[in-house]
Design a protein that fits this description.
Number of domains: 1
Number of helices: 3
Shape: rod-shaped
Strand content: under 5%
Helix content: 55-70%
Structural class: mainly alpha
Number of strands: 2
Radius of gyration: 32 Å
Largest sheet: 2 strands, antiparallel
């Protein structure tokens, strides 16, 4: 049997084109999903660009000495605390 509806008298009715609750056609829902997909893609590209920007900022030559100095802070603190124990 096909997907057509059957009336109370047994005659086949043509399929009814469904509409969304808000009155828009399914085509409008497809347009909404395309917009949603595009927004998701743009958001992903922005996040990737931000990640690349942060990586460039962290590994930039100007900040290398400062980050190395900050990395030595725990070791420098241990040198001054030799009376532990």
């Amino acid at each position: 049997m096909s997907w057509q509806t059957v009336s109370a008298r047994g005659r086949q009715q043509p399929p009814v084109r469904l509409r969304a609750i808000d009155g828009h056609s399914p085509d409008a829902q497809q347009d909404d999903s395309e917009v949603s997909n595009m927004a998701g893609t743009i958001y992903l590209l922005l996040l990737v660009a931000a990640f690349i920007g942060i990586v460039i900022w962290v590994f930039g030559r100007k900040r290398k000495a400062r980050f190395e100095a900050h990395a030595r802070i725990p070791l420098d603190n241990d040198k001054g605390n030799d009376d532990r124990g």
